[in-house]
Amino acid sequence: MGAENYTISREFILLGLTSHPKTRLLLFVTVLLIYLLTIFGNTLIIILVWVDSQLHTPIYFFLSHLAGMEIGYVTSTLPQMLSHLLNGNVAISLVRCILQGYMTLGMGSTECLLLGAMAYDRYLAICHPLVYALAMDRLCQLLLTTFYWTVGFVFSAIYVLCTFHHPFCAIVINHFICEPPVVLKLACGDTRITKVIGFGLSTFIVLVPLFVILTSSGYILNSVLHMRSTGGWHKAFSTCGSHLSVVTLFYGIIISMYIVPQSDSTPDRDKKIAVFYLIIIPLLNPIIYTLRNKDIHLAALKMLKRL
């Protein structure tokens, strides 16, 4: 078939994770369990932050937005993935492919920015506690979150439009979702400008928040080292440790997918990497942020007593 026929078909074929029926069934059960746990964990965080007045602080405000973003993130990808695992290779229309790529990239971009906002919040709380309440008031929280959601989805729109304006020489995508960098590999003609635009946008959306996180962590570490109180040390490390765990996982994987040059010698590389930031990390986020968090524990106990 020529490139024109592929373009007229207006659909792609997603290969999914595997073609083995027994493996697909096992993965279906695993992914379904992860999806339900992810929805439950992040929904619980949103409810606790909403109903408990003790959690009406900037860090939990950002955390509730992160939880909501994770719910949208997995819901835009995993239901279709579950369908693929049951039915094998599945056709997806061009419009659905564009929408999925837009939503997935928009949610991921917003997460990058929100993690940076949370790091800046911890820097103010620990290094400048006297001005923290004024600097991070309700208006500032709303402006920051609105800005980050807007920038994340504008970035996604530009990346997706640049990717899908090309004609495509093939329709078979070796992935379980329509991720723009993977779809771009099927494009005909010269894609160098699109790749440069994608690289520039990805570098900005990933490395700027990462710089904020690392800089904030450096200032926090310096402030902690000057603390005389052992309790202060413990509280600071407990507060920032979970955040750095998420950052190490998320940014490391995202950089390897969107910024580091990729080799065509490993065709399954993209979808193997995507499993981590589309499936594993959204499940780990609520666990990491709540496992050692006494405020969340107390809020959960209060809610259980009320029930």
UniProtKB/TrEMBL annotation:
Presence of the UniProt keyword Transcription in the record: no
Keywords: Cell membrane, G-protein coupled receptor, Membrane, Olfaction, Receptor, Sensory transduction, Transducer, Transmembrane, Transmembrane helix
Topology term for the membrane: Multi-pass membrane protein
One Gene Ontology cellular component: plasma membrane
Keyword Translocase belongs to the record: no
GO molecular function per UniProt: G protein-coupled receptor activity; olfactory receptor activity
Membrane-spanning residues: 25-51, 57-74, 147-177, 197-221, 242-261, 273-291
Cell compartments where the protein resides: Cell membrane
Span of domain G-protein coupled receptors family 1 profile: 41-289
Superkingdom, natural source: Eukaryota
Family according to the record: Belongs to the G-protein coupled receptor 1 family.
Entry-linked PANTHER family: OLFACTORY RECEPTOR
This protein's name: Olfactory receptor
Encoding gene, per UniProt annotation: LOC113429708
